[in-house]
Amino acid sequence: MTGNRTFTMIKPDAVENGHIGAILEKITAAGFKIVAMKYTQLSVRDAQGFYAVHSERPFFGELVEFMTRGPIVAAILEKDNAVEDFRALIGATNPAEAAEGTIRKLFATSIGENAVHGSDSDENAAIEGAFHFAGREVF
Ligand code: CMP
Fold first, then answer.
1. CA nearest 6: which of 138, 133, 125?
2. Atom of ligand 1 nearest to the CA of 67
3. What are phi and psi of 37, to 5 degrees?
4. Which residue's CA is minimally distant from atom 4 of ligand 1?
5. Bridge partners, residue 6, by sequence
6. Which residues are near ligand 1 (CB < 6 Å)?
7. What gap in Å lies between CA 70 and CA 7, rounded to an integer?
8. What percentage of the chain carries pLDDT values higher than 70?
9. Which of 27, 70, 83, 105 has the CB geometry, 3.0–4.6 Å to 98, for a possible disulfide?
């Protein structure tokens, strides 16, 4: 069974480059409803916890430094088949491999600074959403 919620972040590179509005427009135009959203900045401890699954990867330090260098937009999105459909909307992790018209093709600059996050499973969508939002912040 597929779930109807996913979690996203507009990452520091896309915020710095002024793309918050354009990215939210793409997300809502694709039929996703925003059920939670905040503008916030991750601490080093937050980023290390959120990306703990990548802690042994060679790029972990770079990833934590990048994700903490400025504000992000965190959101929970609702749509049928949300995880899969959102990953299609954002495109491949590496923007050089992302399909035309995808958010990463349009707004990302590199595999590390790739503009947006999208959960990779229903289970992780629930974990990541709960990491950022209290129950009363989800509508
Ligand atoms: P995301 O899929 O949202 O979550 C894991 C992040 O790690 C990924 O986006 C990239 O930002 C980053 N990442 C993945 N692979 C690399 C890599 N080879 N070099 C640097 N960063 C990476």
1. 125
2. 11
3. -160, 140
4. 117
5. 77
6. 54, 59, 62-63, 93, 111-112, 114, 117
7. 19
8. 99
9. 105
Residues marked active site are found at: 117
How far, in Å, is the centroid of ligand 1 from the Cα of 52? 12
CA atoms of 68 and 82, how far apart (whole Å): 26
- Taking residue 71's Cβ as centre, other Cβ atoms within 10 Å add up to 16
Q: pLDDT tens, 18-52?
A: 999 999 999 999 999 999 999 999 999 999 999 99
**What angle do the packed helices 122-132 and 82-90 form, to 10 degrees?**
80
**115: exposed, middle or buried (Cβ count in 10 Å: 0-12, 13-18, 19+):** buried
Burial of 13 (0-12, 13-18, 19+ CB in 10 A): buried
The type of residue at 50 is F
Cα angle value 42/43/47 (rounded, 5°): 70
